[in-house]
Write a structure and sequence with these properties.
single chain; 125 residues; alpha+beta; 3 helices; 5 strands
Length: 125
């Protein structure tokens, strides 16, 4: 059973990871458009712009890179796909393409950025 303090701790960890990911990408020339953007299908951690591309970023804070990638199970990918499809028309002003990136944040390590981690609409079991 998840206690209130555990939930708050996880929430704080997630917010820190999103802040680190946003700063990391900003230093690489991305522009932050929105954080924790909600859609009927789910939530997108970061909405950013990279040149003329609209980028939906999923941030995972995990102890290892493998555990971060394993957290992107098929149901999570479907949720992110659905949210990005719903949000794209509202955020894509001036963009010619969109993609979904993943940033894995690990303790005391540089963030790992997976550009175009998967294509929108890929089939997931």
């Amino acid at each position: 059973m998840t206690t209130r303090s555990t939930r708050k701790s996880r929430e704080a960890k997630g917010r820190r990871a999103e802040w680190i990911a946003a700063a990391w990408l900003w230093l690489r020339g991305y522009r932050l458009l929105g954080r924790r953007v909600r859609a009927a299908g789910g939530e997108i951690d970061l909405v950013m712009r990279d040149g003329d591309s609209l980028v939906f970023v999923e941030v995972k804070a995990r102890a290892t890179l493998d555990s971060g990638l394993l957290a992107l199970h098929p149901a999570a990918r479907r949720r992110i796909d659905a949210a990005s499809r719903q949000l794209a028309p509202h955020w894509s002003r001036g963009c010619v393409s969109s993609r979904i990136d993943v940033v894995v944040i690990r303790p005391w390590r540089w963030p790992v950025h997976f550009k175009a981690a998967w294509r929108e609409g890929d089939r997931w079991n």
